Every structure is written in structure tokens, then in C-alpha cells.
Amino acid sequence: MTSGAKLLKATRAAKRLFARKRPDAVVTFGAYVSIPVGRAAFEKGIPLIIHEQNSVPGMANAYLAKHATAVALTYAESAAGLEAAREPVVLGNPVRASFETCTRDEARAALGISADALVLLVMGGSLGAQHVNKALCDMKERLLAIDGLHVIQSTGEGDYDNVLSQLALSDAERARWHVSPYIDSMNEVLVASDLVISRAGASSVAEIMTVGVPCVLIPYPHARGDHQTLNARSCVAVGAARLVPDSEVETEAFSDLIIGLLGDGACRDTMAKACKELSGSDARMRLADMVEQCARGNDGE
Q1: Reading across the β-sheet that carries 70-73, which strands appear in turn?
Q2: 115: which DSSP letter?
Q3: Which of 179, 110, 114, 180 shows the shortest CA–CA distance to 149?
Q4: Which tens digits make up the pLDDT trace of 134-168?
Q5: How far apart, in whole angstroms, are the C-alpha atoms of residue 205 and residue 201?
Q6: Which end of the chain offers a freer environment for a tag, N or C, measured as fewer CB atoms within 10 Å?
Q7: How many CB atoms are closer than 10 A to CB 42?
Q8: Where are the beta strands (DSSP E) in 13-164?
Q9: CA separation for the pair 222, 248 (Å, rounded)
Q10: How far apart are CA 146 and CA 229, in angstroms?
Q11: Burial of 126 (0-12, 13-18, 19+ CB in 10 A)
Q12: Distance between CA 162 and CA 134 in Å, rounded?
């Protein structure tokens, strides 16, 4: 079955679902799965709201924007890539309320890390990032030489065993270097952290900015339209982040940057305050208001 035939079949299935459930509005966030759902909505006259999380719109949102009742954006520059039927509205990127309600003391207690410890969080997305993992393993001695430092490293499923082998942590070192293939309680881990090393996907950036943690962003170089680099630049522009290209991660300059930031509390405090410029703390409520308005037949005009 061709892709076109699959989309048509999925659109018909979505229409049947909507006929049974009778939704007042449909909200999509991009990716190919949203195309048949969004198409079924506008073909049946159901208000369609789309949200573009990244700086460069994906193909699905670029298509659906032409038919959407309302278009919400995380970044203003995304509008240039959309031929929207309505004027897009910049709302920010919604994050779960748990990223705002969890306190630092609660997070540290849940993780078993003392309140006065210094915490470095390293995450490469759900699939991990081999360059980042390798760079951190190479920095092991420098990082563990920092008194009171804890490292929380999310490796991704595919690189977990390899990272454990490279680190070869002793029992004493395992008490300070916490390795896992994936982090479930991301809200607690972020709130507990003093510095984050991360890819620059939309959701990760929104969560980091909302919690207010200084970060070093390493954009995934093969993302569509290099949108992760544009996401990261928005954070750098307000002073909340440092950007390091993927090709420069396994270098002494990267290592020096991380060690320098860990040793400069004043710089981290300034970066943390700058995160508020891009916080998504009210984005979920503003998006909910937009959906309610569209469901009531009021698109804000």
C-alpha cells in the first residue's frame, strides 16, 4: 500500500471515529500521524487547532495550517514557514504542570542527593546521543574531581551498556555518577539540576526553560531544516544557554566549557534568570483558552 493510500485509509478511519465521538475541536502537534486526523477534522467542519513546537515547521503542520481554525507557535520565526489560513499566535510550548509544582528540595530528596550538592544532568533525547555520551565518559576524571558533584546521565537504550563499560565506575563513583537508559521522572531530575547538557528538541528546551536551568545545547545535526539549531539560538539570544555544534562535542573546548560553567555559580544564576524569557509556564493555559474559543465557534476575530 502506498503512503497516499495509507493516509486516505487513516483519514476515513478518523472520520468514523469523529462521527461516533463528535468532538468539539481537534488539536494536533505535527508529525505524519496528525495529517489524517487534521484532514478528517477540517473536512467534517470540526475546528482544527495546530501547534508548531519548533522553529522550522514540519511538513504536517505546513499542510494543515492552510485549513486550521487557529495556529499556535512556540517561536515567532515559525510563521515564515506556514501559509496559514489564520494569523498564527505565539503561545510558547506547553509543558506539564509537574515541571512547575515540584520543588528543588523535594526533587533532591526523591533522588537521594543532598541539598548542597552540585548536579550535572546529561540527556541526549530518547534515543541518546553517542557523541555526547563519549564526551562525558572522556571527562570522567575531571568531573569526579569536582567536590560534591553528582552526574545524572541518560544514555538512551542503545548506548547504555557501552557507556557503563567506558565509565567502569567503582562503587564509590557510582554513588555520584548515576547512569540510566532513560529518565521517567524528568521533572524531578531537571528541578534538582544546576546545569543541563541536552539536545535542542522543542519539548526538551521548553521543559528546561520552564524549570529555569542553565544549559548547554547540542542540536541534533540531521533534524529537518536544522530546526534544533534554530531552537538553541533562541535560547542563546536571551542568555539562557550555550550552543555547541555536534561536531565539536568531543573536544577540549567543550570539556573546558562544562567545567567552567560548573565552577561559575554567578554565571549559572544569570543564565537561569534568562530562562524566564522563554518559559512555557502559561503556554498550556493559553492553548487551552484558544481551543475553547474555537470549540465555541469564536476564532478570536
Answers
A1: 26-28, 48-52, 70-73, 89-90
A2: T
A3: 114
A4: 999 999 999 999 999 999 999 988 899 999 999 99
A5: 6
A6: C
A7: 17
A8: 26-28, 48-52, 70-73, 89-90, 118-123, 149-154
A9: 15
A10: 30
A11: middle
A12: 9
Between 3.60.40.10, 3.40.50.1100, 3.40.50.2000, 3.40.50.300, what CATH number should domain 98-278 receive? 3.40.50.2000
Does domain 3-94+281-295 bear CATH number 3.40.50.2000? yes
pLDDT digits (tens, 9 = 90+) for 99-137: 888 899 999 999 999 999 999 999 976 555 888 999 999
For residues 188-210, average pLDDT: 94
Q: Decide whether 3-94+281-295 matches 98-278 in CATH topology.
A: yes
**HEC states along 127-173?**
CCCHHHHHHHHHCHHHHHCCCCEEEEEECCHHHHHHHHHHHCCCHHH
Matching residue, cell 532513560: 182
CA distance 249 to 221: 12
The x, y and z cell numbers of residue 222, run together, are 540531521
What's the pLDDT at 299? Answer: 45
User: Cell 519539548 appears where?
Assistant: 203
Phi-psi region of 201 (alpha: psi -120 to 50; beta: other; left: phi over 0): beta
Domain regions of the chain by residue span: 3-94+281-295, 98-278
* 168 Ramachandran zone, left/alpha/beta (phi>0; psi -120 to 50): left
Provide the grid cell at 244.
555547541
Regarding pTM above 0.90, the answer is no
Eight-class DSSP state of 194: S
Which residues lie across from 121 on neighbouring strands? 152, 196
Q: Cell numbers 521522572 correspond to what residue?
A: 185
C-alpha cell at 228: 534544533
